[in-house]
Amino acid sequence: MAFLNDRRNLTIASLIVAFVFLFAFNAFVGSTVRNLSVDLTEDREFTLSEGTERVLKSLEEPITLRLFLSPALIERAPGYAAAANRVRNLLDRYVALANGKIRLETYRPEPYSEDEDKAEAYGMEGVPIDTSGTLVYFGLAGTNTVDAEESIPFFHPNRQRFVEYDLTRLVHSLGVKKRVVGLIAGLPIDGTFSMQGGMQQPWPIYKEIEKQFEVKTVDETKDSIPDDIDVLMIVHPRSLSDKTLYAIDQFVLKGGKALVMVDPVPETAPRRRTFMGAGPVPPGSGLPKLFEAWGVDYDSAAVATDANRAIAMPHNSKGQTVHVPHIAYMELRKEDLHKTDRVTAQIEVLIFATPGHFAKAKDGSTAVSPLVTTTGVAMVRKAEDYRLQPDLVDLYRTYRPGDRKLWLAVRVTGKADSAFPDGRPADDADVEKKANESAENDAGAENGKDAKAAAPAHVAASQKPLNLILVADADFMETGFWAQKTAVGEAEVYTPFANNADFVVNALDDLARADPLIGLRGRGAPARPFTVVDDLRKASQNKLRAKQLELARDLEDIRKKLNEARTASKDGRTVLTDKQQETLRGYLAKFLAIRQEQRAVLADLRKDVEALEAQTKFYNIALIPLLIAVLAILIAIWRARRRRRRYETA
Predict the structure, then answer these.
(1) Is the pLDDT of residue 443 over 50?
(2) pLDDT(558) > 70
(3) Residue in 386, 380, 382 with CA at minimum distance from that of residue 357
(4) Which of the residues 113, 449, 508, 631 has an alpha carbon 20 to 30 A from that of 60?
(5) What is the distance between the alpha carbons of residues 294 and 570, in angstroms, rounded to a whole number?
(6) What's the rounded Cα separation, in Å, for the pair 119 and 128?
(7) pLDDT of 22 over the 80 cut
(8) How many CB atoms lie within 10 A of CB 26?
């Protein structure tokens, strides 16, 4: 007892007991609740999403997952250890939530082993780990009861932010029946043959769509859309016949859903070759007859531009390469997207290229709501300005900020009438058929009547409310606008830096059915830009633009004045009179003043950025320690006062 009566000994004993308790508690937690974690990231990046849980609980048939992970990969590349642990933990949680519908098998491929043979048989990608050529594996293969197969050949480090989506997508593809997308494409997104490059591969975004849907190409010679199509996807429709337009019209009026992507400047469309190289960009696309019936205004000869969302691009100007804001290439942020619509709620960044814009028609009967917009300073330009080697410098200098947002993508809902009030349009084949029928005998005419009676009845007005998504850009699906390609062995991995593919698949999911994968796309969003700094920089660029325009006009004026003022002397040298020299000095002084104002604007930008940097450093480095120090001082003062009162009462 004497030992415990000593205050110092009591403190030491308390510390020893506390350390023993902490060690025992850590051991207990580590052995009983290994998968328990707290996710403090802003986007809950490491929390299993509700969409994943819904997929796992709604599986329609058993699935077998096979994880191939080489021990040598963890031993020789420790950076993969965290990724491997995360994949294994996720798969364990998938098995626990799937109610017995998922069986997990783990294999450890080593050189010349049976596990390595299985990995190769299931299409896993072997990656060399050293100069000896030893291959390591880190992939997943899945099968269901009908022998359908899906795989992730290799969990590339660049896609670790998307690992939950990749896993859930694979499980969803195997365990839930795919819906059918009907495709009408004026761009080679599904692969095509060209005289220059031979057979082209489908775009990666097309492959992303195929992972979730069964894609069928719609026969444009038919006057109806097949009944098994769940959602119609129309990409850059060019020169569609009235028969095809009528088929689309009737499909939509009967309750069919459609995703339509038009483009005023289809930069990814095939171009005609000329003796000087590639020709101009083909004309834009649109569906004027259908858009009018759907209550939407759209001009295929107009391009939306926005200096606040412009992407800097290298441009050759007078023999020099300069980086110029491309005002028709836009990096659209979360504040430019509809915050509550399922298609855009989880999207972080979209990149559009020379898009058009929509508006609600004045007398339209439908509801048109924007999904993606520009900022409030957008300007409309002619599509012709961008069809052949656009002068980005001149387009930027002549930019005039507008006073309203332009709608780049919209959702159309409500009731509408047919774009063909007189019924099914007659084409050349119909006219020829009618002429033949008039010359036939009575029996032939009767057969013609029977055939006519069997034709589908014309739908004059929507039987169900419309549900359409229209996008005023089609080029944004091209890979260069949303993903970076990386070679892993013989395979190619695409790492998104924008959510363009997510937007397209989200739209199809939303139109086809209530799909749980929507909540996962965008969780692996691209790295967030420094939006405050970007806004400061673009504000200064807007100020500089006016100065640059003034400077350009004055320089041109100076050149004209000098040419007018020059007089040639007898020996051929150019001389100036005293008055002309005084005029020249005045223009040069004005030139220097404008340049000084430009430098002042740039100096103000640097000051604003440096002030923001200092403020951020203060918050991240000094503020928390200061708060802790202040709290410690307050506690010390409180304890001192409490001790003083105790002595006084004693």
Answers:
(1) no
(2) no
(3) 380
(4) 508
(5) 76
(6) 15
(7) no
(8) 10
Which CATH class name applies to 50-159?
A: alpha beta
Quote the tokens at residue 529. Answer: 């830009």
pLDDT band at 335 (very low <50, low <70, confident <90, very high): very high
Cβ atoms of 245 and 453 within 8 Å: the answer is no
More confident residue, 67 or 645: 67
Per residue in 608-639, is it b (16+ CB within 10 Å) or e — as a string? bbeeeeeeeeeeeeeeeeeeeeeeeeeeeeee
Structure tokens at 51: 């969409």
Q: Length of the chain, please?
A: 650
Better-scored residue on pLDDT, 544 or 11: 11
Separation in Å, CA 309 to CA 437, 541, 576: 60, 12, 48
Helix axes 163-175, 50-57, angle to 10 degrees: 20
Query: What confidence tens digit (pLDDT) does each residue in 114-165 have?
Result: 999 999 999 999 988 877 778 999 999 999 988 888 899 999 877 777 888 8
Residue that has been written with the tokens 């996807």 in this structure: 233
pLDDT of 449 above 70: no
Say if CB 407 and CB 370 are below 8 A apart.
Answer: yes
**pLDDT digit string (tens) for 262-272?**
999 999 988 77
Cβ atoms < 10 Å from Cβ of 231: 22
> Does an H or E element contain 86, and which?
helix 79-97
The rounded mean pLDDT for the chain is 81
Burial 262-276 (b: 16+ CB within 10 A, else e): bbbbbbbbbbeeeee
Spatial separation of the C-alpha atoms in residues 537 and 533, rounded to whole Å = 6
Nearest in space to 518 (alpha carbons), one of 65, 54, 89: 54
pLDDT, residue 565, reads 53
Q: How far apart are CA 40 and CA 42, in angstroms?
A: 6
Say if CB 597 and CB 547 are below 8 A apart. yes
pTM of the predicted structure, to 2 decimals? 0.66
pLDDT of residue 317: 72
CA dist., res. 122 & res. 125, Å (int): 9
Measured CA distances, 574 to 125, 266, 474, 563, 565 (Å): 74, 51, 57, 10, 10
Average pLDDT over residues 311-317: 85
Whole-angstrom Cα distance, residue 190 to residue 198?
14
| Encoded tokens for 157 | 């480090």
Residue pair 452/430 in contact by the 8 Å Cβ criterion: no
Token pair, residue 245, equals: 């337009």
Domain ranges of the chain: 2-32, 50-159, 178-269+280-300+355-374+404-423+460-528, 428-457, 532-649
Cα(21)–Cα(49) distance, rounded to whole angstroms?
35
**How does 236-260 read in b/e, with b if 16+ C-beta sit within 10 Å?**
bbbebebbbbbbbbbbbbeebbbbb
Closest CA to 234 of 168, 290, 275: 290
pLDDT band at residue 581 under the 50/70/90 scheme: confident
216-227: average pLDDT: 89
